[in-house]
Design goal:
Elements: E1 8-9, H1 20-30, E2 34-39, E3 42-48, H2 49-55, H3 65-69, H4 89-99, E4 103-108, E5 111-117, H5 118-131, E6 147-148, H6 159-169, E7 173-178, E8 181-187, H7 188-196, E9 210-211, E10 216-217, H8 222-232, E11 236-241, E12 244-250, H9 251-261
Helix pairs in contact: 4-9, 5-8, 5-9
Length: 270
Amino acid sequence: MIVRDLMTADPAVIRPEATLDEALDLMEELDVRHLPVMSDGALLGVVSDRDLLATAGALAFRPGKESEAATLADRLGAELTTVSSDDSVVTAAVDLVLGRIGCLPVVDDGRLVGILTEFDLARAYSDACRCSPELSDLDPRVEAEMSANPVTIAPDETLATAAQRLEELGVRHLPVVDDGALVGILSDRDLRKAAARDLAETRAVSAAMTKRPLTVDRDRKLSVATILMHEAKISSLPVVENGRLVGILTLTDLLDHCMNALREPDAPRR
């Protein structure tokens, strides 16, 4: 399988003079998380919603001011990892996982022809498991890949506390637990939306969390969890057993596993 089979061709792009707010608005309008930045036909970089949210200071609850003035040109890094449409999906998976990046621009002969995201690779993994019985040994139960006993937060704790906890732990999602029961999940994206709605940092987590989150049982196959994430366009799933939280599975966990699962049968495994 090659990149061309999975990529989104001719993706929407944005100019470097656009502001952070304009980029976030376009992402929301198009329901995408990444935008290539182009100028006069040249690819300058890629911005993600998380890049922009962190820059805008959403986790520190400083909405609006900084993002209104800053442009994308001010935020582009020097390094840009790309792939060609003829590269193998395994090559792309390695670049995504090891680089901890959410997408790869697809460039042929110096021209942007597509974009490949984490969700595209997750879909390839679930499709491969469904269509190839010989891959059954590479489709373990969710409990084999999840992070057990994740750090949680209570619904009555403040958004400021949640932001600090996310930053200290270096994670993007906090299950919200009340008296032992899972009642929601809070992500860094939820915090950005709270900041945009001018919710004070003293407001409770319950005001910004996603209520009744999608979950997966620890005994389900990993490919099933992958399908759930892909269809819902979410990057984490609380893992439950008899309705109680026992872990969390993230898109990064899936991609770590996918690097091996998507290899050709005769390819050496990592």
